[in-house]
Specification:
By secondary structure, the chain is of the alpha/beta class. It has helices at about 15-20, 35-40, 50-55, 70-80, 95-110, 120-125, 140-150, 165-190, 195-205, 210-215, 240-255, 260-275, 285-290, and strands spanning about 5, 25-30, 45, 60-65, 85-90, 110-115, 120, 130-135, 150-160. Helix content is about 55%, strand content about 15%. Strands 3-2-1-4-5-6 form a six-stranded parallel β-sheet, with helices on both faces. It has a three-stranded mixed β-sheet with strand order 7-8-9. The longest helix is centred in the middle third of the chain and has 29 residues, at about 165-190. The chain binds nicotinamide-adenine-dinucleotide. Nicotinamide-adenine-dinucleotide binds near residues 13 and 240.
């Protein structure tokens, strides 16, 4: 069993750290929010006085923070306090540039590092069923993979530094665009007098099928577990979808990629958020489209 430090014990990091305690590791943690610290303490995490204190003596350090600027700042602070030979892994969703900057901070100190963003949300974090998309050197992946596997169901090595973040934002750009496409089809079906169930039965077994339809169906009924059956409570909040779509646009701009549908998806979810729905499940965008049609 390993000595692990976990920085950022929020909605995702808290339950992920708890799963590492359950797996038998010795886990020290730190978060700026007292409430996150006390919840993690109840789950068996030893709360340190600071992030630097938490990482002292750790073989593996994990961070789960809001955005790229937090990751770069926290890594700049803690990397000098880490022991030689330790591995540092960021599981936050951040822009590719910040991810690469964080890798560089670790490399300058002679430490190995991974970017390992997740998909699966808070349910996956609690149930240890996350998917990890991992970027970094092969030896760093080999060292980190067994620990990541204790918090998730799939751990995919996507390539070198930043490749995990690249995979995450490409995947979520597909998801955001798909949800808008599906929602438009249901809105059109309503206008044409076609029932939700009939469209679902056809599309889910035909060329229109996709994960967003069969798992996050935006109308109540066909998929009983989708947020549409629960007043569009998340699920996957619009704020988080928008964050990922904007990261994809930022990456597209700096890489010179043409992503017109990704841009349109970011604009539509931006309007939906601005209308006061940032906390709603992203599939609620169907109501917004309905209002516009
Ligand atoms: P959260 O806001 O609940 O948790 C982030 C935590 O980081 C907070 O508790 C905050 O106090 C702490 N923090 C911020 N700055 C800090 C610092 N300098 N030192 C120590 N702690 C600090 O957010 P979350 O939902 O847990 O998401 C974390 C990351 O995971 C984000 O990048 C998010 O995009 C990503 N993500 C979230 C979900 C989801 O469903 N919530 C799904 C996939 C990916």
């Amino acid at each position: 069993m390993a000595t692990i430090a976990f920085i950022g014990l929020g909605n995702m990091g808290g339950p992920m750290a708890a799963n590492l305690v359950k797996a038998g590791h010795s886990v020290a943690g730190f978060d700026l929010a007292a409430a996150s610290c006390s919840a993690a303490k109840d789950d068996g995490v030893r709360i340190a006085q600071s992030a630097r204190d938490a990482v002292a003596g750790a073989e593996i350090v994990l961070t789960m923070l809001p955005a790229g600027k937090h990751v770069v700042a926290v890594w700049s602070d803690i990397v000098p306090a880490m022991q030689a030979g330790a591995l540092i892994v960021d599981c936050s969703t951040v822009d590719v540039e910040s991810a690469r900057r964080a890798h560089a901070i670790a490399a300058e100190a002679g430490l190995s590092s991974l970017d390992a963003p997740v998909s699966g949300g808070t349910v996956g974090a609690r149930g240890a069923t996350l998917t990890f998309m991992v970027g970094g050197a092969a030896d760093a992946f080999a060292a980190g993979e067994p620990v990541l596997a204790q918090m998730g169901r799939r751990v995919v090595h996507c390539g070198d530094a930043g490749a995990g973040q690249a995979a995450k934002i490409c995947n979520n750009m597909i998801l955001g665009i798909s949800m808008i496409g599906i929602s438009e089809a249901f809105v059109l079906a309503e206008k044409l007098g076609l029932s939700h169930q009939a469209l679902f039965d056809v599309a889910s077994t035909s060329s229109g099928s996709c994960w967003a339809l069969t798992t996050h169906c935006p109308v109540p009924g066909p998929v009983p577990t989708s947020a549409a059956n629960n007043g569009y409570k998340p699920g996957f909040a619009t704020d988080l979808m928008l964050k990922d779509l904007r990261l994809a646009q930022q990456a597209a701009l700096s890489a010179g990629a043409s992503t017109p549908l990704g841009a349109e998806a970011a604009a539509l979810f931006g309007l939906f958020q601005a209308a006061g729905h940032g906390g709603d499940d992203y599939s609620g965008v169907i109501n917004f489209l309905r209002g516009r049609s």
